[in-house]
Write a structure and sequence with these properties.
The structure holds two protein chains of two kinds.
Chain A: H1 8-17, H2 24-39, E1 53-54, E2 58-60, E3 67-69, E4 72-73, H3 82-85, H4 89-99, H5 105-113, H6 124-140, H7 147-157, H8 164-168, H9 172-185, H10 193-212, H11 218-237
Antiparallel strand pairs in A: 1-4, 2-3
Chain B: E1 3-8, H1 15-30, E2 37-41, E3 46-49, H2 61-66, E4 70-73, E5 82-84, E6 88-96, H3 111-125, E7 132-135, E8 138-141, E9 144-145, E10 147-154, E11 157-165, H4 170-176, H5 182-186, H6 191-195, H7 201-216, E12 218-222, H8 227-241, H9 244-247, E13 255-256, E14 260-267, H10 273-285, E15 293-299, H11 315-322, E16 328-331, E17 334-338, H12 344-354
Parallel strand pairs in B: 1-2, 1-12, 3-4, 14-15
Antiparallel strand pairs in B: 2-6, 3-5, 6-11, 7-8, 8-9, 10-11, 13-14, 14-16, 16-17
Classes of the chains: A mainly alpha, B alpha+beta.
Chain lengths: 268, 355
């Protein structure tokens, strides 16, 4: 029995070289090497990719801000609390958006998208956009956004299925912008101006996402949706995102197998 | 320089065991215990369902009873149900196809591999003076199909298992298989139909080996099953091919490598204190089961290659990853414990039950 823990290198050696027929002694020798490599547990920070070291003492979670006894901390001081490590996508998005003081939606979105619960592409990006925008609007003091607003945004965003961009003609990240405006303005189907604004916001974001082309990239769509939303909010509500950073170059391009490359406005 | 292949001429008395043997030689090839293998065998009246065939819709069970036809399901990624009897020559190629790209001019992944094998079979049939032609989908004599196959892939490894209709009674085939694609049904033929006489099976085997040897640049050495393969085939027969759960419902256990019981543990990255306790518990309860159980620790967000270039991962693990079920213990492809640490006795019992 081989108990395998965290050593892709070890297994690349073991599986890669033992894939074709070989002498049993050679196989045993290679297996011994790979087992030895596997024994060394090295964890890499999911935020900065630097090797983490065993830690003692209290550290603050880089996601939710919770302070607790830390087990592993990276040289940049990043620590992820136990609750955040096992959190599902909706839970981590709500946790972070509830407590963050950040006023740059791109920074919150990038932080969340580095969490392993948020896959490279997936429907969780739909409500990620809404929650990130709502958290920023709350922090800027423009709208009253409490935790129930985030709950509403997640519940509505979860109803948008995977692939709605190509199948329905409406990307979930763009609809996420509309959801954020709807929740912030307390819009409904009977509302007047708020209803129009929610749909206009979706329309603006959708237009920007459509320019990127395909196949879909949920990271690029998220960036485009947030940038379009920031322009729309400034124009319609006078919200000034003074600290809005540029998502360029995209920090996910190296790990995205389906990256659009130079075709994507966030590639370089 | 030609490649060394093992020629395995092994027929079991039990049809279901024959299909367990195919999977056993494929798994053995995948993990590198054996070289590329060609198995030739014959068996009594059998309908073989593909993994996606319907036990009810694709088979006429009344006709099966009448002709004493056994129904078994094969692991495959495509193909329709096939039929063979003692007049058919069955084959199973268990091969690392990474060298096939050098055997064709315009290489097309997946299709070229099938084409090369079918061409080898067709070259063998030429020795009987028939105008056999091959493409990726089969071997034909004047547009009538003479072979049927159910391929299975594991990364670059291909198990190309099927049958060649030599003296097959195709009338029985027409009755026992409810073919949904009528054009394919009409296109079947056998070598004896084409030549107007029965053909000795030994001559066919000889010709076939010659054709395959030429096309695949293979050098055949006749060998038997290894002990590992025999043990694995017996296990596969016990937990898969001999059970209605697989043959009727198409539900298979998730076994790893040479058929070890897989215990997949899905944890956070880096593991939380709860995840660590779970890992330790799994290690502890499986410490005396080293020969039978393979424990694989999967960490969320580390990608499918955290366990090498050709990882084996169950569907239940994919679901746990998608739904963030952490921690989770998946035994033989079934999610058994989730979200908390189970009692040690419960975990041990679940693993023993799966052996």
């Amino acid at each position: 029995m081989a108990v395998r823990i965290n050593s892709s290198l070890g297994f690349r050696i073991a599986r890669g070289l033992t894939s074709s027929w070989m002498h049993p002694f050679r196989r045993r020798y290679l297996n011994a090497i790979s087992e030895a490599l596997m024994m060394a547990e090295v964890f890499y920070c999911i935020l900065c990719k630097r090797p983490m070291s065993p830690a003692q003492g209290i550290s603050e979670c880089s996601f939710c801000g919770k302070r607790e006894e830390a087990d592993y901390v990276c040289p940049s001081g990043h620590y992820i609390c136990e609750d955040c490590r096992i959190a599902s996508s909706d839970r981590i998005i709500k946790r972070v958006c509830e407590v963050t003081r950040e006023t740059d939606p791109i920074r919150i979105a990038v932080l969340l998208m580095k969490h392993p619960a948020i896959r490279m592409h997936g429907p969780e990006h739909h409500y990620l956009v809404s929650c990130v925008l709502l958290a920023t609007l709350r922090n800027l003091g423009n709208f009253e956004v409490d935790n129930s607003a985030l709950e509403k945004a997640v519940a509505r965003g979860k109803r948008i299925p995977l692939g709605s961009c190509g199948l329905w003609g409406a990307c979930g990240a763009a609809i996420g912008v509309g959801i954020a405006i709807s929740v912030a303005t307390k819009s409904s189907w009977t509302a007047d101006k708020e209803r129009s604004l929610s749909m206009q916001a979706t329309c603006e974001a959708l237009s920007e996402i459509a320019k990127i082309g395909g196949p879909r990239c949920c990271k690029a769509s998220t960036f485009a949706a947030i940038e379009a939303a920031s322009k729309f909010l400034k124009q319609e509500f006078g919200v000034d995102f003074t600290s809005l950073t540029s998502p360029r170059p995209c920090c996910f391009k190296a790990i995205n197998d389906e990256c659009l490359g130079n075709k994507c406005p966030y590639f370089e | 320089m030609s490649r060394s292949w093992r020629l395995l001429q092994y027929s079991s008395k039990d049809t279901k065991m024959d299909w367990a043997v195919n999977e056993a030689i494929f798994r053995s090839r995948r993990v590198g215990l054996t070289p590329d293998t060609l198995r030739l065998w014959q068996g009594p009246n059998t309908v073989v369902l593909s993994a996606s065939s319907s036990y009810e819709a694709d088979v006429n069970h009344e006709a099966c009873r009448k002709y004493r036809v056994v129904v078994v399901r094969a692991t495959s990624i495509s193909g329709d149900a096939l039929y063979y009897d003692l007049g058919s020559l069955n084959f199973a190629f268990a091969v690392d196809t990474s060298y096939f790209k050098y055997l064709v001019r315009n290489y097309q992944q997946v299709l070229s591999e099938y084409e090369v094998i079918n061409e080898g079979i067709a070259m063998g049939l030429h020795k009987f003076g028939v105008n056999a032609k091959a493409d990726a989908y089969g071997v034909y004599i004047d547009h009538r199909r003479i072979s049927e196959a159910l391929p299975l892939w594991f990364y670059d490894f291909l198990l190309f298992q099927g049958t060649l209709h030599i003296n097959t009674n195709l009338n029985i085939r027409e009755e026992v298989i409810r073919t949904r694609h009528l054009e394919r049904k009409a296109a079947l033929t056998s070598l004896s139909c084409e030549l107007g006489k029965d053909v000795p099976m030994d001559e066919v085997k000889k010709a076939l080996l010659q054709g395959i040897k030429e096309r695949l640049d293979a050098n055949f050495l006749e060998r038997g099953l290894t002990d590992d393969e025999e043990n694995l085939a017996r296990k596969l027969h016990r937990v898969k091919y001999g059970l209605e759960r697989w043959n009727v419902d198409g539900k298979e256990p998730f076994l790893i490598g040479m058929g070890k019981t897989a215990v997949e543990v899905f944890v956070a990255y880096p593991p939380t204190s709860m995840c660590r306790r779970l890992i330790d518990m799994v290690k502890s309860v499986t410490s005396d089961l080293k020969d039978k159980v393979e424990v694989v620790i999967w960490m969320r967000g580390r990608g499918i290659q955290q366990h090498g270039l050709r990882p084996e991962m169950s569907d239940a693990l994919r679901r746990a990853e998608k739904e963030s079920i952490i921690p989770a213990v998946i035994i033989n492809g079934e999610l058994k414990f989730q979200g908390a640490i189970p009692l040690k006795e419960d975990l041990r019992r679940a693993i023993l039950d799966a052996l």
